[in-house]
Amino acid sequence: MKPWALLCLLGLFALPVVAGVQVGQSAPPISLPLLTTDSAAELTLDSLRGKVVYLDFWASWCGPCRVSFPQLEELRQELGPQGFEVLAVNLDEFEPDALRFLEEVSVSYPVVRDGAGETPATYGILGMPTGYLIDRSGTVRLVHQGYRKSDGAALREDIIELLGEQAQ
Amino acid sequence: MKPLTYLFVALCLCACETVQPWERGTLAKPEMQWQTDPREISFQAQINASKEATSGGMGAAGGGCGCN
Amino acid sequence: MAARPGDKHSALLALTSSALLLPAYQAARADAPPQFMEMGVRYSKYKEDDTQGKKTFGGSSERYDIDAAQFHLLAPVADNWSVAVDVQWEDMSGASPWFVGESLDGSPKVIMSGASIADTRTEVSVTTRYYYDRGNVGLNYVHSDEDDYKSDAVAVDGAFNSADGMTTYSGAFSYSSDDIEPTQGSVPTNTLKADKDISSAWIGVSRIVSRNAIVRFGLSYTYRDGFLTDPYKFRDQRPDERKEWAISTGYRQFFMGPNGALQADYRYFDDDWGVASHTLNLAWHQNFGFSTQVIPFLRYYSQDKADFFANIADLDQRYFADDYRLSAFGAISGGLRVRHEIGNWAITAVGERYETDESWGVYSGEESPALVDYWRYSFGLDYIFR
What we know:
The complex is a heterotrimer of chains A (168), B (68) and C (386). Chain A is of the alpha/beta class and 168 residues long. Chain A is built from five helices and seven strands; from the N terminus they run αβββαβαβαββα. Chain A has helices at residues 3-13, 65-79, 95-104, 118-123, 151-163, and strands at 31-33, 42-44, 52-58, 84-90, 111-113, 130-134, 140-145. Chain C has one domain: Porin (Beta Barrel), CATH 2.40.160. In chain C, strands 1-2-3-6-7-8-9-10-11-13-14-15-16-18-19-20 form a 16-stranded antiparallel beta barrel. A two-stranded antiparallel ribbon of chain C has the order 4-5. In chain C, β6 and β7 (135-146) form a beta hairpin.
């Protein structure tokens, strides 16, 4: 077999070595425009320091997002006053798709847009959706792959525990 | 052996570049699935297997119709 | 679907619906069960053209007519499971080729089985599927029941994504056990009671080519064992074993400009009866807005005859069959499928025309006077419980 063909064959089976953000690491900074306003003003992850943040990477075509959105909204309504916030980052290639999704599944938490795909690359996402639970000090405490129906209840416990901690 | 080699080459020539998880929106569309309408496909497959000598093999466990 | 006499059905075929519920390629998300319950019904009408007068003893005759209804239910269960139930009812009536004889001018002509036969078939299929982070595993059971034929089949299938999600490996194994008890009366049968087993295995790999395209390759093997002869044909004696191989490939590509997708599938089939075939399926999936799809489709099929096929059976040979389905022919079919969504409802309508001719195939052989053409229509209604 020709050497270039062999290399390509290896490419088939090679696993990408993406150093994704791990639990215990500091959450990389994010500064992205809000999706639902016309202003170019950006929302930064830094501005949410001191709160427990669930950073959610989503897209309109991701099935489990139809389940996660209502559950995250509920959690935010309940635990928001105690300092919990959800920051959703939309990764749709086309913005209208994201807006259509939000019309059907509306939420009150901030949704920002990253059409270029830089933030998910920085975070090293392996699948959609992926959520990062970040504590009051800006450290990633949980990486949540996918979303199942019963995840809301488990997340609630984790969030309450983190809310009890002081910011450093 | 030669056709098999070409097959392998063709297989890996397809995408030596990874498509990131967040770039797979188009691939999630219904028309980009292997079976867009499973019931329609199974019905067509049943008819075809009853009227022809071939059955199965198209991405489903073979076998198929008991037609001789 | 089974047609009687002459065509038999194994529930194993319905198995295609279970393996078809297999998400052969999971996109970028972790493998997940369906989010919402969905239900659907479908009604289909299948009508064969009358036989050609000059090719039939006794002049042109009506052939097969089938009315079919399908019910489908798919529901997520707990966090990681789904259950699917499919029920199909078929009402069949009509005449079928009994045997082929030589007419006075030397040309072969088909003799049809006289009076109209009526039969009903019921089929129930249940599939349960377990989803984990990198794939899923399914288990399916199908039972099919009609006057002269009963079938039970089980199948196991699984899919597994590579770590980067670019490749999906899948496999399936199935086993079916069928019992035949031909109905006595319309034509003499060459068995009173018989059975057969069918085992089948399939492996496949699917790979993302680009943001807009995917490709797959598959390989399957099927082994049939038991009474494989057609009991309703006057002169029919087939081997009691059949080994089949098939390789297949598929391609899907989305085109942003026209907002549509091209679907292409090809299969090559080969067995130890001498039958070989090529199948090519093409479809263009055109979107209109977000709720409507119009899908024209085309199929080309060409098969080679079984070693022991002959219009006028050679009774000196060990095996013989004059069944048109084992002859060499080509078939071209095409049609249109339309789907429209309104809220949580979806309406589907399909029309298809299928025609056969010996000269359309890439293999040549004796043309059977009993080659079939048909029309098929289907209407469906689906609801998703969002």
